[in-house]
Amino acid sequence: MPVITAQKLRNNAATALTLVTLDGSTDTFESNNSTMQSLMLVNTTASPIVTTMIGSNAPATFKCAGYPETAVVALSVTVGANSTVTQYVNTVGGVLSGVTTITGGVGLTAALINLT
User: Fold this and answer.
1) Are the CB atoms for 84 and 40 separated by under 8 Å?
2) Fewer CB in a 10 Å sphere around the end CB: N or C, the chain?
3) Are 4 and 28 in contact (CB under 8 A)?
4) What pLDDT, on a 0 to 100 scale, did the predictor assign at position 37?
5) Rounded to 5°, angle at Cα 96 from 63 and 74
6) pTM (two decimals)
7) Listed residue (116, 67, 63) closest to 89, CA to CA
């Protein structure tokens, strides 16, 4: 079960990141609401890869001022062929709170980065 452990970036020097190879079904990370976090997903294959993510503490519904209450659904992130994307963890309406499970990530490597 690949667990993506947060790595801290708190200086102005180049910092090496440890990437975790995802297996596509049991990949997890734990969010930390006391720091800004970004999940980096790297695809070195020739095809796009679509992942879905949802946290164990995700609420059932979400309400944003001025909009109707809606059901919370898993976040879908597509990583293009030979591309790298980042996804802020703390700014997705609680969808990635708690222990987040990532599915569909076969072919990806990942790093969870604490930005503050």
Assistant:
1) yes
2) N
3) yes
4) 94
5) 75
6) 0.89
7) 116
